[in-house]
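Entry 12.
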Amino acid sequence: MAEPELSSAAASPVLHGGPPVLVVAVESEEQGRWLAAIDYARAGVRPIYYRVAADMPAAGLPGSALPASAPPAAEAPAATRVLAPMRAQRADSGGAELALPDFTAIVEGLAEDRPVACFVAEGGPLARLVAVAADLARLPVLYLVTTGAQLESFGRREKPRPDLYFLADEELLPEASLDLRYGATLLPTGHPADSPAAGERIADAIRDWRSGALPAAAPELSIVVPAYKEEGNIALVCDRLLAMLEQDGLNAEILLVDDASPDATYRIARAQMLRSPRIRAFSKPPPRGMGSGIRYGLRYARAPIVAVTMGDGSDEVSRIPEMYAKVHRENYGLAVGSRYRHRRNYRTVPLIYRFWSACFRLVTRLLIGLRMSDYTNAFRVFHRRIFERYGAESAGFEISPEITFKAWFATRRVTEVDVCHLKRASGQSSFSFLRAGPGYAKILLKALVNRLTGKWIVLEW
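Predicted 3D structure (tokens):
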């Protein structure tokens, strides 16, 4: 059966009932197939496909004009608005005519259809003109971004509701993740022509955008995850972090920092970005070191409060909300995840680790005067104001006591939250007290000088 079409000049093309309208620009039959495969009902919108009469057969798209008695909202059919073409000569084709969209017809169509937004893909003539018409009407535009040039060309337009950008190519993610809009209006989805999952991500993003459920542009908490040779653990860590954020409702971002791993850690970390716009993955160049990884994450973190959790899955990340509350609500400079206040929490910590931790704890209490049960656990939440006078400097594992001491000297407000040390799912820890010892001693000496003089030694030796 032939598809009833909506003429651009029709007096009453669509009944304005049921779900809100999303205008979808279609420039080819192939594009029409994968655009039509997106589950718009899942997004809570009803598509009206715009196409130029000479571009493709009507049979390339599903839909019809809405009948007088419309079905339930989720089952409302699509419709197609066929735009009368304008004719232009192509200079490179010996005077051959090219069918171009009629801009006036697009403007009139948007006025009649009253969409909540327009969806354009891949930057063809129709997509560009629909985007311009939407900008003039201050309608949001949903862009499918396929190239780096497109990504660089998008400006920031003031509208009642912001434009959305769907990143269709995984290769765009490293560059896009540096944009302040990433995770809020710049979203990783993949290309719906390549995977049904990409179409589902787009539908979910449209739904969340309409309901206001997308993450805010400025997160309140940045979770830095340094990782070295953690290809077997990084996805599990993301599972736990996303579950924790979903349950608690924290407005947070997750920064996965691969420390130049020789295995597939970064490739797997980057793939996690498609799971959630909260996740950003980075590949840090050498030199390696946990401290360098944390400092690299701090460089790109967007929140005033930072959590650090290891990429091996050994931290009880479900405790992050309590640790965050200590810093955010109770004004502590630092909340450390403490393993040593209860025996049940350190059963999986190797005995040699416990011995050296006890030695460091005793010396620190004598020299610095700060009484804690766990100075060195990397799992912690802190406010960035602790680095206002002296920034983070350590490259290795000694960054953990460095953060502890600088938080104490800067705020005199340091606390602990009981956490359980978990067994890593795969691989082996690269930590060694023999290798980390000199760094720990250096930081302890600097802390002692700071206690005596009020100044932190910034020279390296």
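Annotation: The CA atoms of residues 42 and 203 lie 6 Å apart. The mean pLDDT is 87.
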